Amino acid sequence: MSTVAIAANGLRKSYGDKTVLDGIDLTVPQGTVFSLLGPNGAGKTTVVKILSTLVRADAGELRVGGHDLAADPQAARAAIGVTGQFSAVDGLITGEENMLLMADLHHLPKSEGRRVSAELLERFDLVEAAKKPASTYSGGMKRRLDIAMTLVGSPRIIFLDEPTTGLDPRSRHTMWGIIRELVADGVTVFLTTQYLEEADQLADRIAVLNNGKIAAEGTAAELKRLIPGGHIRLRFTDPDAYRSAASALRGATRDDEALALQIVSDGTQQELHSILDWLAAAGVEADELTVHTPDLDDVFFALTDSGKLPHQPKETLR
Asked: Would the CA dihedral through 110, 112, 115, 121 be positive or negative?
C-alpha cells in the first residue's frame, strides 16, 4: 500500500450545541485524489480547515504528511498547500507580484523566488498576463493563479476546497487537467466539491459526508453499485438465439420486440462472467451486451437524503 498522506481517526468538531463532525475516519494514500462530497453545511470545509491546521479539532487522532497535528502542527503546515473556494489572489497587484509575494512568505531567496514564480506562471499558461493586474483576469485565470501560488512552497499535499466553483465548463476541464498533472507528479490532492462529475472524473476514492458522519466510502464504481437499479442488457439479432438465452436466464426481463433481455446486476466482473458462462452452456452468444449502473447523482441523493441507503447499512468498501 502507498504511504498514507492523510489519516483521521475519530475526528470530532462542534460549534456550541451543533455537532458538525461526529467521529470521522479517513485514510488518503500518497499520490492519489481523495474527494469529499456532501450537501451544503455538511462539514466539508470544516474537515479541510482542521486537516490544514486552520482550526483545531475537539477530538481525534490526526496525521498529515506523517505529522501529528496535535503535537506538531507547524511541521504538517510546511507539507501542505490550501486553495479555497474563494480566491486568495490580490487583484490590486499583478499575477507576477502575487507569485513573488507568496515566495517571500515562504522565505525563498529573491533569485529562487523569481525562478519558481516564472516556472509556475509558464506551467499554468499565465506568462502573457503576468504583468497585468489580477483584477483583470477571468475566473479561470484567477483560479489557475491561486493554485500556482499554492505550489510556490512545493507542497506534497494540497487541499482544494471546491476549486472550480463558479467556473465555466471549459475552465473547469482545464482545472481537471492541472489536478491530474499534480497527481502524476506524486502530489496528494484532497478535494471537496459539489460537482459530482468532478469527483467521478478525478477521484481515486470518494467519501460522502452527511449529518456529520461518513455515509459511505469507496471508488466511484463501488459507490454506484450500492444503489438499486443496476442491470445488464443483452440484445440479440437472431430470434432463436434470443429464445434460447431467455430459457437459460429465467430471471431476466424480456423485451420480445427488441429481442433484448435485462438482468438485475451490480455490474461486477464475477456476475458478468456468470451470465456469459450460462449463455455459453446454452450455446448462445449475445450480439450486444451493455452494463448499466446508477450514476453519482443517484448515489448522492440516496446517501444524503436520510444519511443512509434504503434497506442497507452504511459501509466502507475496500
From this structure: negative
